[in-house]
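S., here's the first fold you wanted:
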Amino acid sequence: ALLKTSLDLPHGSVVIARRQTGGRGRLGRSFHSPEGTGLYMSVVLRPHCAPQELMHLTCAVAVAACDAVEATAGIRPKIKWINDLTLGSKKLGGILTELAFAPNGEVEFAVVGIGINCGNTASVFPPELESIACTLEGRVTPDTLAKALVERLEKMNTLLLPQRSELMDRYRRDCITLGRQVRVISPTAVRQGLARQVNDDGSLTVLFEDGQSQAVS
């Protein structure tokens, strides 16, 4: 819904929900987001650039989110390519980026949705998520985390285009996917391979079992 109404929202607008009844992530996956247990925030950005210049946006936001969690909760999450924040082997949060385009082909605006679990105990999760999801266990309130995240997103925005390589270097330091076996799922096949490199455009270079390398985005 926010994507449809963002035409009238200025750059830097922030919307925070106490809960989501239809929280979702990439590929239409659901995101469990009951009231009072997490930060559920969307930010409107208007970067005025070609789409190919903005392919790393999700990565840059992930680094800003790690910075905010570390500053407020005292622990630094890791990043599972491309958009999951993790603690140990469990998912702490996620990022969903959606773009709208102007008639000239430039990005008219981007809506970045961020969800981070902050609840006091893991019991906030339904049974099917207890083994794969985690929370900050009450180390920080959603409001405090939101303030820190907005501050770091503002700084990120100034670096987004002119210092893309530097932002991506930071992403690579936090990314746990590199060096691991991954599955690449396409409409026609599932392929196994080794994650070798995250490129400056946010794509992941995978060395497949047949010896071929491919940048996956």
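And the second, which I think is the more interesting of the pair:
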Amino acid sequence: WPQADGSLISPGLFVPAIEAAGLADELFFAMTRQVTAAMALWRGQAIHIKAAINLSMDTALNLAMPECLGQIVSAAGLSPSDFVIEVTESRLMVERSLAMESLTRLSLMGFTLSIDDFGTGYSSLVQLIDLPFKEIKIDGSFVQRASHEQKARSVLSISILLGNSLGMKVIAEGVETVEQLEMVHRSGGHLVQGYYFARPMPFAACSEWLVHQ
């Protein structure tokens, strides 16, 4: 969040404040409208990619959310299959039974559901069985620690093996160096996310970056 003095406030600070103020739904739908508008512009430039959107557990409990999300996506001329909806694992177990209805509806509509920060919660295996997830994103802390900790390397490898065995897409987060990229590959991983490839950037810069990929 850019400030007048040029400084930036991290989402780790302002998102919890927005949720605490009861504005999680407004943030989610505002963000979704921006993402769908960007996607529509990229389609006009023949850039066909999927976009991942973070879903707060507060918003996941809103049973009207799937229909509203579908309407926003449709109005932009896009389809649910163009989007991945990421749910952070740490809060999922606490609200699992309440969130199951809305998450299942999203899956049936064609959205891909992803567990974000996989490995940081306490009930990953239960969630993989009971909820319609098609993707897991291994938390970047395991990738960072795996560079110098054998236990972390083992967790990384087992998580990738588990996801592959379940027929899920597995993404290793937090890849920042070529050594980490090679380590993920040796562990059986084929998809990564992190600063090694690109850092967060404004829309115009991102559009230019995509054109040259």
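Why I say that: The mean pLDDT is 90. The chain is about 50% helix and 15% strand.

Talk tomorrow,
H.
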